[in-house]
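step: validate -> pass
step: tokenize input -> pass
step: predict -> running
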Amino acid sequence: MARPTKIDIFNLAGGQNSKSSPIFLKDNECELVQNYHLDNLGSLTKRNGILYLIGQLVDNKSILGMYLFSDQQGTDYSNVLVASDIAAGTSSTISKITTNAWANSKTLDTTGAQPIFCSFIDYVFRTNGTEVMGSSADLTNWGTTNCLATLKPKYTCVWEDRVYALNDNSATKYPSRIYWSSLPSGTPLALTWNAATQYADINPDDNDQITWGEPLGSIMLVFKENAIYRWTFGQVEPDKIISVGTPEGRTVKQTQGICFFTNKYGVYAFDGQTQPILISRKVQPFIDAIPTLTNMRAEVDNDHYYLYIGDVTVKGETYNNTMLVYTISAKAWHIETYPFEIKSMARFQRKTLGTTEIYESIYLGDDDGFVYRKDTGTSDYLGTAAKPIDGRILTKEYPLPNFPKTSILKNLYFLTQKAIGSKVNYRLDRGNWEAWKDLKERVTDGRLSGRARTAQFSITDYSEQTSQIEGLSVEVEAEKGIRREEQNG
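step: predict -> pass
step: emit ->
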């Protein structure tokens, strides 16, 4: 009498591998993991949604930059800063929150100027490469107090009690130059600058330009498009770390002592000690499909690096408004897709601003004047309209127990939680997709039919459920006349 035999897959923590052939994946990897995260160890859980903050700033204009200014002394002027062009398109404005509404903080910046912010000695500093460096203590009155007042740097950061300004885009351009302020002194604390002496040129003869400055422990990383340099204060010449950098400094983010950045070769992780390590090989087809590298944006939380890459076409399929997500603890990838273009990303800490609650979360700025909070609720919003989240999983192509000979399929079991609304399809030997069942129970089981060497499964969920896929089991008939040990060997 024939005995059934089966394959059990109850660990899906390997995430997405789009680089290898589906039959060569590890058993815990999938060909595609779209809008499911890896945070519940071993399973795939549909991601949470997004919710708009307050309302639209301005119609049909992109969010150019975002920042949470956290005031630490005296009167608390803490607030969210959001930049966008005005409706007429003749200038850009930095807005803040006042009584649960958007209000002007700074006006008359250049149209399309993308601000970079940092804060120190209870001032917020703004650079954008088109206006002179600006500052404000109360987010109402802006000027050049404590600034490098006559020059137009593109980037700014704070490191070792000094404010830095990088890539001078003034009339006389110094794209490889960094400037630094004095140490703070006096009452109240103040900074001074000397552009004639307090500067360094970072390999100015390399036909490249600075794209970011990132403090990392006891060093500052100076990024160019094709190199990274290690800078320590007072150094005559910076140390070149590696001959790759980033064309878009907004991909440079750090968490858990790791600095992430992205270029045309992929995503790198750098601990400041050894060489940067390329970590994105499993999603390289998505990296290779990025249409415009300078449109990339990134942010981090305690266990993820989120990289927005835009619309990409991979293996003939188009993914709109795509974000690659690296889970640090699992060393694994998945993708997320959104109903709008992401123009800006920022991580905010929890703060109460009058009647407006800012949560510890990542916030997204779109191309239509809206700011959204990530990881809340079970729906995505496009403006003020809620939309279900489109989840999709393509599993590995599993060799069946008698591979490379054929097996007769018998039953399929799916172990899930809250999976109402999820549909399962299957295909045999990489053939056409066939419908199986909707997932409704803790364990959904049913017949499979056919004879095959391999089987692959897809799970789709276009609903407001937070479904969790925990595993599957495929049962096949043992062939009559074949010994059990031969069947399994």
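step: describe -> DSSP finds two helices and 46 strands in the chain.
step: cleanup -> pass
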